[in-house]
Amino acid sequence: MLVLFLLSSCSINKDIYWEEIGEKDRKKILCSSEISYEAKMVYQDKFILSDNEMSEVLLNELTSKIKNKKITAFYFFLLNRICASSDGAFAEMCDEYLYNYMESNVNYVLHYVKKNKDMLNLYADCISAGLDWRGLELIDYEKVISPKVSKTNRKTYKLLINEVRVP
After folding, report:
1. Is residue 2 included in any domain, yes or no?
2. Measuring CA to CA, how many Å separate 85 from each of 76, 78, 82, 95, 166?
3. Residue 119: which domain range?
4. Is residue 5 included in any domain, yes or no?
5. Do the beta carbons of residue 80 and residue 119 sit within 8 Å?
6. 8 A C-beta contact, residue 160 and residue 121
7. Does a structural domain hold residue 9?
8. Distance (Å, rounded) from C-alpha 135 to C-alpha 105?
9. Tell me: the pLDDT tens digits for 118-158?
10. What string of DSSP letters covers the chain?
11. pTM of the model
12. Would you tell me the crossing angle of helices 138-145 and 88-104 to the nearest 10 degrees?
């Protein structure tokens, strides 16, 4: 019985990512009233974001604290997709949101990056930009983030930090 309890408690704390959610559950999530119309339209490539107030409202929604892990997974997926394809002034806006998201959810992001190495440069670039805006050194960032990094994400964290270009 103890083994079952331990297994169930591990699955409760397991990170969930959009790519791991089955099609049936994805459809349910996309029909949820908890997700804005704008987020659904962006997901379906029916709405293009730019450097404007509506985009800022959506980025705020995508980076807000949500208790439902599957909706968090959807928002994180959409945030990554939007930021990976952004450029110009909108890319700068996205970098700020990614930087703040990573500060608040460092292990969730690092676990994802560990599974998706192609995202390493996106997060390294956003950290570089964030340091530049704030006039910080990499060591300042590490003082804030490093204590939050779990043992299982240390290697990925070091890879990420090594990719950061110091302004």
Report:
1. no
2. 14, 11, 6, 12, 23
3. 16-163
4. no
5. yes
6. no
7. no
8. 22
9. 999 999 999 999 899 899 999 999 999 999 999 999 999 99
10. -HHHHHHHHHHHH----GGGS-HHHHHHHHH-TTS-HHHHHHHTT-S---SSHHHHHHHHHHTS--S-HHHHHHHHHHHHHHHHT--HHHHHHHHHHHHHHHHHSHHHHHHHHHH-GGGHHHHHHHHHHHHHHHT--HHHHHHHHGGG--GGGHHHHHHHHHHPPP-
11. 0.87
12. 40
Summarised one tens digit per residue, pLDDT across range 98-120 is 999 999 999 999 999 999 999 99
Number of domains observed in the structure of the chain: 1
In-domain check, residue 96: yes
Sign of the Cα pseudo-torsion (144, 149, 154, 158, in order): negative
Structure tokens belonging to residue 77: 């997926």
Distance CA 159, CA 50 (A): 31
